[in-house]
C-alpha cells in the first residue's frame, strides 16, 4: 500500500489507484499522512480543514463524520493488513503506518541519506533516488492555495536544498552542462534564489560561457530590484566579481565564503521512522550568536535564589498536564515578582525532559521600544533551530508552518518571556505533544485561556520568611544577625517583592557602614518607590519596572491608575474609586478590569479593590508628578463628597437623631449608598473606618475650600463607631452643628 501527497493525493494498493471520497476526506487523509505516526489535535484539524474562513459551529461533528467515513474506507481496503490504523487519543487523531509508504517521507529519508554521504558521486546517486519522489507542492489540488503554501513552506526548502546539493555534486564531478540545465529549470520557479543563481553562474563560467554567466547575474539583480526592491546579496556579488576578474578558483573549488555547500536545515530532514526510534537523539544545534532567541543555558543565573519551591512544584504539575493538552503553561504576575527567574530555574531543572533543546526568546512585551511581532519571533526561533537565514520564508503563515515542522517529533522547551498579548503568543505555541511553551507575562493573558485552555501560575510576592532570607543572603548573615527587626521591617516596606528586595539589599551591600534600621527609616520617610533604585544603574529601579507596564496603558487607563494614587491606602471599594474618578460604577469596573488584567490592580472581589502596596506607592508617585494641582484637588473633592454622603447616611441610619448634612449628592457620580437597615450601615462603617481615618487629615487641609471636606471632618468621629452604635471619636468630636438633633 502506497500514498502520494506531493503534487496531488493518491492512494495505491498493489499498484492500483483507489478512490478516497469527498474533498475534505481527501484533505483529512493528507493531513494525517503528513504527520504519520503522530497525533494531530482536533483543533488543528478543524483549523486546516476549514482554513478559508471561520469554521462552522458544526465543524467538530463534521470532522467526526469525515473520520468515520475514512476509517470505513481503510477497513474496506484492508489497510490494517498493511499496518495502517486510524485511532483517536490525546485530544486528536493519529494514523499509524510505515512512513516509507508515503512519497514525502521517502523523499525526506533519501535526502537525509544523501546528506550523510561523503563522496560527491555517492551523494549524487542518492539524490537521484530522492528527487524523483518530488511530484509538486504538498497536497496541491486538495488544499486551498493558502494552505498549500502554509503546509509546504518547509518542504519546498528541502526540495531547494536537494537541488542545490545535486548541482554542487555535479559541479564537483565536472558535469557543468547538466548542472546548468537543472539549475536553469529550477530558476524558472525560483528566480529570486541567489544560491541557485550563483551556482548557475559558476556552471556557465566553467563551460567557457562567461558572458552568459554575467547575464544571469544581471537578470537576477533586475528581478530582485523589480519584485522585492532588494540588491543582490554579498555572496552573489562576490561570484560576479570573481567571474569579472576571471578568477581561477571558480574552476576548481567551491569552498569559499558564501558559495560552499550550505549546512542542511536540521529541522526538516529527520523522517518519522527515525524520530520514532527509542535511541537518544542528538540535541538540535542552537546558534549561540542569535540576537533574539537563545538557549536557556546562555542566560546567567540570578545568584542568591530563595524559596518558590511550592511554585516550582506547581509549575511541574501544570506542565505535565499541558504536555498532552494545550502545550502551553503561563507564569503571570506583576513587575518584579521574578517570573523570568522562576522560568529559567524550572527550565534548568527539567533539562533532561527536553533533550532536543531549550529555546528562550524575549518578546519585549513590556520593554523599551516595540514588542516583537509574531513574524519576528518566528524568524528568530527558526534561526535558533538551525534554519539558514536564506531559507527562512517571509510570510507569517509560512514561517509558522516551517516552525511547526521544525519541532515535529522532537522534545523542545520554548520559553516565551515577557509576552504582551495572546495574539503575540498564539503562533509560537508548538503543536507537537512532545514540546512545551512556557510563557511569562505581566498580562494575565486571558485570551490564551479561552483559545488554548492554558493553565496559569500566578506569581505573587515572596512569603515573609523567603523575603527575609533573600535579604540575609545578599546583605550577609553576620550583618543582619543583630538587626532582625530591621530586616523584617525592610521586607514589609518592599512588599516582599523580589526586585525591590534585591535593590534594597544591593544598596546596603554597597554601603557597608549603613545600618539597616537607618535605611528602612529613610525609605519610610517618603515614597519608597522613589528611593528603591541603584545609583548609576537606571535599569535597577522599581519605578522603571512599573513604568514599563504603565507606558503600555491607553490614556483612560493611565489617568485612572494615576488617580488611584489619591486613595488614602491600597484597599478601598469600587464605589469609592468611582467617586474618585467621577465615573459610573460600570465605567469604573471596566477600567479596573483593564488594570487588573496587567496586574496593576491585585484583585476586584465583592465590590472591593486591592493594590499591592508598592504599586499603590507608584500610582501616588505618578499622581504627584504628572497631575496638576487643580486636578488633584478636584479628585480629592469628589472623594470627600462621596465619603461625606456615605458616612452621613450610615450615621443617620445608626442614630435617627443624627441630622442630614448640608450637602446633597444629587447628580454626583456615583451616588452615595443608602442603607436599608442598621446592619448594612454598621458593616459599611466597620469596613470604611480605616479609609476615613486616613482621609481626615487631607480633608482638614481642604476644609476651608470645600464644605464637603469640612463635613467629612465633622462626621469622621461618628462614622468611626463600633457596632454598638454610639459615637466613638477617632480623630475629633463632631462639630456643634453636627450634634444638633
TrEMBL record:
<dbReference type="InterPro" id="IPR003593">
    <property type="entry name" value="AAA+_ATPase"/>
</dbReference>
<dbReference type="InterPro" id="IPR005158">
    <property type="entry name" value="BTAD"/>
</dbReference>
<dbReference type="InterPro" id="IPR041664">
    <property type="entry name" value="AAA_16"/>
</dbReference>
<feature type="DNA-binding region" description="OmpR/PhoB-type">
    <location>
        <begin position="1"/>
        <end position="97"/>
    </location>
</feature>
<keyword id="KW-0238">DNA-binding</keyword>
<dbReference type="InterPro" id="IPR011990">
    <property type="entry name" value="TPR-like_helical_dom_sf"/>
</dbReference>
<dbReference type="InterPro" id="IPR001867">
    <property type="entry name" value="OmpR/PhoB-type_DNA-bd"/>
</dbReference>
<keyword id="KW-0902">Two-component regulatory system</keyword>
<dbReference type="InterPro" id="IPR027417">
    <property type="entry name" value="P-loop_NTPase"/>
</dbReference>
<dbReference type="Pfam" id="PF13191">
    <property type="entry name" value="AAA_16"/>
</dbReference>
<feature type="domain" description="OmpR/PhoB-type">
    <location>
        <begin position="1"/>
        <end position="97"/>
    </location>
</feature>
<dbReference type="InterPro" id="IPR051677">
    <property type="entry name" value="AfsR-DnrI-RedD_regulator"/>
</dbReference>
<dbReference type="Pfam" id="PF00486">
    <property type="entry name" value="Trans_reg_C"/>
</dbReference>
<dbReference type="InterPro" id="IPR036388">
    <property type="entry name" value="WH-like_DNA-bd_sf"/>
</dbReference>
<dbReference type="InterPro" id="IPR016032">
    <property type="entry name" value="Sig_transdc_resp-reg_C-effctor"/>
</dbReference>
<comment type="similarity">
    <text>Belongs to the AfsR/DnrI/RedD regulatory family.</text>
</comment>
<feature type="region of interest" description="Disordered">
    <location>
        <begin position="710"/>
        <end position="741"/>
    </location>
</feature>
<dbReference type="Pfam" id="PF03704">
    <property type="entry name" value="BTAD"/>
</dbReference>
<protein>
    <recommendedName>
        <fullName>OmpR/PhoB-type domain-containing protein</fullName>
    </recommendedName>
</protein>
<keyword id="KW-0805">Transcription regulation</keyword>
<keyword id="KW-0804">Transcription</keyword>
Amino acid at each position: 500500500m502506497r500514498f502520494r501527497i506531493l503534487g496531488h493525493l493518491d492512494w495505491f494498493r498493489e499498484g492500483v489507484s483507489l478512490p478516497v471520497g469527498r474533498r475534505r476526506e481527501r484533505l483529512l487523509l493528507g493531513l494525517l499522512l503528513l504527520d504519520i505516526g503522530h497525533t494531530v489535535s482536533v483543533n488543528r484539524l478543524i483549523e486546516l480543514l476549514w482554513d478559508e474562513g471561520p469554521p462552522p459551529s458544526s465543524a467538530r461533528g463534521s470532522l467526526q463524520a469525515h473520520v468515520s467515513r475514512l476509517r470505513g474506507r481503510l477497513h474496506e481496503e484492508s489497510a490494517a493488513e498493511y499496518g495502517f490504523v486510524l485511532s483517536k487519543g490525546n485530544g486528536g487523531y493519529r494514523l499509524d503506518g510505515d512512513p516509507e509508504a508515503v512519497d514525502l517521507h521517502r523523499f525526506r529519508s533519501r535526502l537525509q541519506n544523501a546528506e550523510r554521504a561523503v563522496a560527491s558521486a555517492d551523494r549524487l546517486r542518492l539524490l537521484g533516488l530522492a528527487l524523483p519522489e518530488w511530484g509538486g507542492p504538498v497536497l496541491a489540488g486538495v488544499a486551498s492555495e493558502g494552505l498549500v503554501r502554509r503546509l509546504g513552506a518547509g518542504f519546498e526548502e528541502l526540495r531547494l536544498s536537494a537541488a542545490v546539493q545535486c548541482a554542487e555534486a555535479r559541479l564537483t564531478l565536472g558535469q557543468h552542462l547538466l548542472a546548468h540545465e537543472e539549475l536553469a529549470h529550477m530558476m524558472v520557479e525560483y528566480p529570486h534564489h541567489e544560491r541557485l543563481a550563483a551556482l548557475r553562474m559558476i556552471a556557465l563560467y566553467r563551460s567557457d560561457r562567461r558572458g552568459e554567466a554575467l547575464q544571469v547575474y544581471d537578470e537576477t539583480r533586475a528581478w530582485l530590484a523589480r519584485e522585492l526592491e532588494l540588491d543582490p546579496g554579498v555572496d552573489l556579488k562576490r561570484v560576479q566579481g570573481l567571474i569579472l576578474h576571471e578568477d581561477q578558483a571558480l574552476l576548481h573549488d567551491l569552498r569559499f565564503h558564501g558559495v560552499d555547500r550550505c549546512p542542511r536545515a536540521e529541522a526538516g530532514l529527520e523522517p518519522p521512522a527515525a524520530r520514532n526510534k527509542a535511541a537518544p537523539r542528538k540535541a538540535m544545534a542552537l546558534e549561540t550568536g542569535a540576537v533574539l532567541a537563545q538557549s536557556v543555558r546562555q542566560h546567567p543565573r540570578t545568584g542568591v535564589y530563595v524559596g518558590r519551591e511550592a511554585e516550582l512544584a506547581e509549575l511541574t504539575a501544570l506542565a505535565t498536564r499541558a504536555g498532552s493538552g494545550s502545550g502551553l503553561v503561563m507564569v503571570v504576575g506583576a513587575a518584579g515578582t521574578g517570573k523570568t527567574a522562576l522560568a529559567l530555574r524550572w527550565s534548568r531543572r527539567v533539562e533532561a525532559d527536553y533533550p532536543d533543546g531549550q529555546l528562550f526568546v524575549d518578546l519585549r512585551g513590556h520593554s523599551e521600544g516595540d514588542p516583537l511581532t509574531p513574524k519576528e519571533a518566528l524568524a528568530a526561533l527558526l534561526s535558533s533551530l538551525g534554519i539558514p537565514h536564506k531559507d527562512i520564508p517571509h510570510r507569517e503563515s509560512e514561517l509558522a508552518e516551517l516552525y511547526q515542522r521544525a519541532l515535529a517529533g522532537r522534545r523542545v522547551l520554548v520559553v516565551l518571556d515577557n509576552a504582551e498579548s495572546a495574539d503575540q503568543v498564539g503562533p509560537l505555541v508548538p503543536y507537537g505533544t512532545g514540546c512545551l511553551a512556557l510563557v511569562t507575562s505581566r498580562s494575565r493573558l486571558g485570551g490564551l485561556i479561552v483559545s488554548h485552555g492554558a493553565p496559569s501560575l500566578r506569581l505573587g510576592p515572596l512569603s515573609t520568611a523567603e523575603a527575609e532570607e533573600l535579604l540575609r543572603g545578599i546583605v550577609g548573615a553576620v550583618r543582619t544577625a543583630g538587626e532582625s527587626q530591621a530586616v523584617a521591617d525592610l521586607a514589609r516596606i518592599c512588599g516582599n517583592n523580589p526586585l525591590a528586595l534585591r535593590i534594597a539589599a544591593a544598596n546596603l551591600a554597597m554601603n557597608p557602614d549603613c545600618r539597616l534600621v537607618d535605611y528602612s527609616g529613610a525609605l519610610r520617610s517618603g515614597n519608597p518607590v522613589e528611593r528603591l533604585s541603584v545609583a548609576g544603574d537606571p535599569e535597577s529601579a522599581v519605578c522603571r519596572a512599573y513604568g514599563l507596564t504603565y507606558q503600555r496603558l491607553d490614556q483612560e487607563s493611565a489617568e485612572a491608575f494615576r488617580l488611584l494614587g489619591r486613595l488614602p491606602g491600597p484597599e478601598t471599594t469600587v464605589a469609592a474609586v468611582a467617586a474618585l474618578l467621577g465615573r459610573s460604577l460600570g465605567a469604573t469596573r471596566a477600567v479596573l478590569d483593564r488594570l487588573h488584567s496587567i496586574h496593576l490592580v491585585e484583585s476586584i472581589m465583592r465590590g472591593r479593590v486591592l493594590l499591592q502596596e508598592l504599586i499603590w506607592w507608584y500610582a501616588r508617585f505618578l499622581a504627584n508628578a504628572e497631575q496638576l494641582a487643580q486636578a488633584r484637588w478636584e479628585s480629592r473633592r469628589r472623594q470627600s463628597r462621596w465619603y461625606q454622603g456615605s458616612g452621613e447616611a450610615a450615621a443617620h441610619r445608626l442614630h435617627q437623631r443624627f441630622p442630614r448634612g448640608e450637602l446633597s449628592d444629587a447628580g454626583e457620580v456615583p451616588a452615595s449608598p443608602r442603607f436599608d437597615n442598621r446592619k448594612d450601615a454598621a458593616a459599611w462603617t466597620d469596613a470604611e473606618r480605616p479609609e476615613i481615618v486616613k482621609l481626615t487629615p487631607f480633608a482638614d487641609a481642604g476644609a476651608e475650600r470645600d464644605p464637603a471636606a469640612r463635613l467629612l471632618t465633622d462626621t469622621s468621629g461618628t462614622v468611626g463607631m463600633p457596632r454598638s452604635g454610639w459615637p466613638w471619636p477617632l480623630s475629633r468630636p463632631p462639630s456643634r452643628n453636627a450634634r444638633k438633633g
